[in-house]
Amino acid sequence: MKEEKVVSFGKKQTKNQNEKNIEIEYCSFCKRPNTQVPKMVKGPGVNICSECTLIAVQYLILQDGLMSAEAQKILDLLWGTNRK
């Protein structure tokens, strides 16, 4: 089974199993198409790619300038690093 690159919320989309054309979706933040990013989340009138999502999560965690140990664990998991 092929992994879907676009995850939709809201309106349910149906695809023909024999259809080979992939619908191109663009990230509302970086404007890259779903063919150039690992994953895309599609919402009502807006899309966000996995890379912009990671940047947003990092921003939200770091916006106060204080890093809790729990937030650091999340960032380490997301970015695959061991910062100390």
Description:
- The protein has 84 residues and is of the alpha+beta class.
- It has two helices and three strands.
- The chain has helices at 50-62, 69-79; strands at residues 6-8, 40-43, 46-49.
- A three-stranded mixed β-sheet has the order 1-2-3.
- A hairpin with a 2-residue loop joins strand 2 (40-43) and strand 3.
Q: What is the secondary structure topology, with strand pairs?
A:
Elements: E1 6-8, E2 40-43, E3 46-49, H1 50-62, H2 69-79
Parallel strand pairs: 1-2
Antiparallel strand pairs: 2-3
Helix pairs in contact: 1-2
List keywords for this structure.
84 residues; alpha+beta; 3 strands
Strands of the largest sheet, in order across it?
1-2-3
Structure class? alpha+beta
Count of spatially separate domains: 1
Helix-residue proportion: 25-40%
Summary of the model, kept short:
The chain has 84 residues and is an alpha+beta fold. Helices cover 29% and strands 13% of the residues.
